[in-house]
Specification:
The protein is an alpha/beta fold. It contains 20 helices and 14 strands. Helix 14 links the parallel strand 11 and strand 12.
């Protein structure tokens, strides 16, 4: 690494030889260290360490007068040269007589010491993998680039500072920036190499690391977006665009450039084209099932050979299910392979509006009443969000009625506890209830449920506001949500024996990813399916994996 020319000059040092047991090894990447035969060598004062780092980076003779002037900028020339002689003598005594090659006019590290430095190893790896034509690279060179990326992750001479030496401080910062630049170049090449070989996961990993090194690098952001889309994660690619745009606005006060905006527009079009397109689906007749004194609105549609019972989250309205801005396209696609049974839970939608707190027992008996009314003896259960606990109880208590259980964006306990930190505490839930009921009838909390990418969609905002107005009232909703907050099926998960898949989007803001993963781990044989994206609503982002997972459950 040099302050002149390429950040990591191709005039490389030989690779470190691990069999040379008596040699001094030098670490410059990270905290400055030297070892002999496994034992640490004390490196002395900061100026000695600075000289060692300088000589390792230059990898060639350095003029004495330059070193002296940079180390003691305020001293007379004769005094600075005298101090340098004493410093070099001290440094040589700490290492060995052959470690330094000190001439009358200049000084350098010995080739043997350079060969046993991590910086020398990095240069050799770059020469073999970065400074050659891609067509000439073999598997060893590619794996060497992976090692180079790890070596370059460190900071050059980490922690070393000489505030009183302006020139030297500036030089140190340039070396550190050069190392970051070298890592970016390595990661960019690795990403391209892995993509060309069809190793998309490794290509994505390298692209993500590249963006982590420099989040304001727009070409790197575009590269990551393109790879995400190529791997089938178009929604995640657009979310990456949103993160990049936010950073550019906050840190530089600028908008993404034309190439980035053009890519985002193409990805939006791809996502729209990939979404299930609703056939002309007229609202289906609504029927009522009775469970005690409560009337439950339900409907069914689709001609698939298998039944599917959908258990919603805290709010629903059957008539709103057919709006194109809502889940109509998803349900239309699902109806190709299933007879889909929808119902509004007690207290919401077209079902009886009761403010009596419903519990899980009521939820299970209500679901069974709907299945009986629909003439379904056995169904796949697809339960989302707060409906997940009902789905678990139903599968546990009536396994003969449940062919398979698909859980999406759900959690095992409705509120936090000392041994369950993945939900809101009861005081936090009360505050959230105050916020959402204060905005009832508007698009309350849509950023949480839809994610920031979709929350700007005016059609979706209008659909959500209308759903809230039609589905419930603030008073009813307080009762519903407080009851859900008391649900807890953690002790039951280990007894579930029906085939189960647990799905969750990694950026979900409504339910924490860890809560769903722990559910999957607790249910014997459950399939854990993490998905890219931020939408809590199952029909947004790329919903094809959700449909495929439901269809993969046994009949």
């Amino acid at each position: 690494m040099s302050p002149h020319g390429h950040p990591l000059d191709e005039a490389a040092t030989p690779a470190m030889n691990p069999t040379d047991d008596d040699a001094i090894t030098l670490q410059v990447l990270g905290p400055l260290k030297a070892r002999r035969a496994g034992a640490a060598i004390e490196l002395g004062v900061r100026r000695e360490q600075a000289v060692l780092a300088w000589l390792a980076a230059e990898a060639r003779p350095v003029a004495r007068h330059k070193l002296a002037a940079w180390l003691w900028p305020d001293a007379e020339e004769a005094d600075a040269r005298s101090r340098l002689r004493r410093l070099l003598h001290s440094l040589a005594s700490r290492l060995d007589a052959q470690a330094l090659q000190a001439g009358r006019l200049d000084v350098a590290l010995s080739p043997r010491l350079l060969a046993h430095s991590d910086l020398g190893r990095l240069r050799a790896l770059l020469a073999a993998g970065l400074y050659r034509d891609v067509a000439t690279l073999d598997a060893a060179a590619i794996e060497g680039l992976q090692e180079a990326a790890e070596l370059a992750r460190a900071e050059f001479a980490e922690g070393l500072q000489l505030a009183e030496c302006d020139e030297l401080s500036g030089w140190l910062e340039r070396q550190r920036e050069s190392l970051r630049e070298a890592r970016k170049q390595v990661l960019a090449r690795l990403s391209g190499l892995h993509e060309g070989a069809g190793r998309f996961e490794r290509a994505l990993q390298a692209a993500r690391e590249h963006v982590d090194v420099d989040p304001l690098d727009e070409p790197a952001q575009r590269r990551l977006m393109q790879l995400l889309a190529a791997a089938g994660h178009t929604a995640a690619a657009l979310q990456q665009f949103e993160r990049s745009r936010t950073l550019l606005r906050e840190q530089l006060g600028v908008e993404p450039d034309a190439a980035t905006l053009s890519l985002a527009a193409r990805l939006h079009a791809q996502l729209a084209a990939a979404a299930p397109q609703p056939t002309h689906f007229e609202p289906q007749p609504v029927h009522y099932a009775r469970n005690g004194d409560v009337h439950l609105a339900w409907t069914s549609f689709g001609a698939g050979p298998r039944d599917l019972l959908f258990i919603s989250g805290f709010v629903s309205h059957l008539d709103q299910a057919w709006d194109a801005a809502g889940p109509a396209a998803f349900f239309a696609e699902l109806a190709r392979t299933h007879r889909v049974i929808l119902f509004d839970r007690r207290g919401v939608g077209l079902s009886d509006r009761t403010v009596d707190p419903a519990n899980l027992d009521d939820g299970v008996s209500d679901a069974l009443a709907v299945l009986d009314a629909a003439g379904s003896r056995r169904a796949t259960v697809f339960a989302v969000s707060e409906g997940g606990s009902i789905g678990v109880r139903l599968a546990l208590e009536r396994p003969q009625r449940v062919a398979g259980l698909a859980l999406f964006g759900t959690l095992a306990k409705g509120s936090a506890a000392d041994d369950y930190p993945w939900a809101l505490t009861l005081p936090q839930l009360d505050r959230w209830l105050e916020q959402i009921t204060a905005q009832w009838g508007q698009s309350a909390a849509i950023e949480v449920f839809a994610g920031p990418l979709h929350a700007r969609d005016e059609g979706l905002r209008r659909w959500w506001a209308r759903t809230l107005r039609l589905a419930s009232s603030p008073r009813c909703m307080r009762a519903v949500l407080r009851s859900l907050a008391l649900s807890d099926v953690r002790e039951l998960l280990g007894s579930v024996r029906v085939p189960t898949v647990v799905m969750h989007r990694e950026g979900d803001r409504a339910v924490r990813h860890e809560a769903a993963r722990r559910m999957a781990e607790a249910i014997p044989g459950a399939r854990w399916l993490p998905l890219p994206g931020q939408a809590h609503w199952w029909w947004l982002d790329d919903c094809r994996p959700v449909l495929e997972a439901i269809r993969a459950l046994p009949a």
